[in-house]
Every structure is written in C-alpha cells, then in structure tokens.
Design a protein that fits this description.
Length: 175
C-alpha cells in the first residue's frame, strides 16, 4: 500500500463495459495529473493476447503477460487503470477502487450503439444486473477502498469526478 511505501497513488476504475470508465478515467487523469491506462489499449499496443474468442468476437487477454508488462509502472505509482474486470490485478497495486454502475436500460442503449452482438449485449447487461464487477471488487480488495459510483448522466460523471478529486486531494495531503 502507498501508505507503507514512497510510491505514488494508483486508482482502479472498473465496471461493466459501457458504464463510462474510459470517459471518467481520461478526464480524471487530466484533472489530477496522473497517467491514464486503458488496459484494452495496452493489450492491443503490446499484443498481449492469447487467442481469439469467436463467440464474443474479441481477442483473449493474456493476463500473465499483462501483469508482467504493467508491474514496473504500477510499482512506481501515479496511475489510473481502466478495465472491465479487477480480479486479475494484484491487490497491492491499488490505493482505491471505483466501480462504475449504470442503469440497465441506459447500459443496453450504450452497448447497442457500440454494435455489440446479441450474446455480448445480453451477457454484459446481466453482469450489471447481478453486480458481478462490484462483487468481484469487494471480494478482491479491502472493503474500505472499494467505492460504488452511479454513472448514468453527464451530471453523474461530473459529480463522480469531483468526489474522486476530493478523495485524491485528501490522500495526497496525508501521504
């Protein structure tokens, strides 16, 4: 944990695809001067794949190679990591975890606009209904660092940015 070492702050933004992780993460990084890393972009840029999933029409992430790639950067700190899952990351990497949640009808529309096939769309909406990512975060990280944020509207986005910025300012003042 950062409180035990000299490294900088690391934030994880996670949630079902379509909840607004990338929008929030990129804007937050600009406002608080941290490095923003979309895990999907890192995987694509470094070709960190282990095959292709025909059913979902997407590459399969090589999690071990991803962890090896990110570990030196994460040890230094100063990162915002955006990914739709969190159980693959070492607990020691993050000082705080934000799980974005979105109303199912809004999420459905967002994913449909992305062109998700019927199975992928259905499975992601079900993931949100059953709070899969939230439960994953609660099971993998200390309870006090996991925070659930509703992200349905542009106003929610702005409120979430302000909440996170306040938390970061407090963290920086005490570390």
């Amino acid at each position: 944990m950062a409180s035990e070492t000299a490294r900088g702050l690391n934030i994880l933004i996670t949630g079902t695809p379509g909840t607004g992780k990338s929008t929030l993460g990129a804007e937050l990084a600009q406002r608080i001067n941290l490095r923003y890393m979309d895990v999907g972009d890192v995987a694509r840029d470094e070709q960190l794949y282990d095959g292709y999933d025909e059913e979902y029409k997407c590459p399969v992430l090589d999690e071990d190679r991803l962890i090896d790639e990110l570990d030196p950067v994460m040890i230094d700190g100063g990162n915002i990591v955006d990914y739709h899952s969190c159980d693959l990351f070492p607990e020691r990497w993050f000082d705080i975890v934000f799980v974005l949640r979105t109303d199912n009808t809004i999420l459905y529309d967002r994913l449909e606009k992305r062109g998700y096939n019927a199975k992928k769309l259905h499975d992601n909406v079900q993931c949100e209904i059953f709070q899969t990512i939230l439960e994953e975060a609660r099971g993998g990280y200390k309870h006090e660092i996991v925070h659930e944020l509703t992200n349905n509207t542009p106003e929610d986005l702005e409120d979430n940015l302000e909440k996170i910025i306040q938390w970061v300012q407090q963290w920086r003042a005490t570390h």
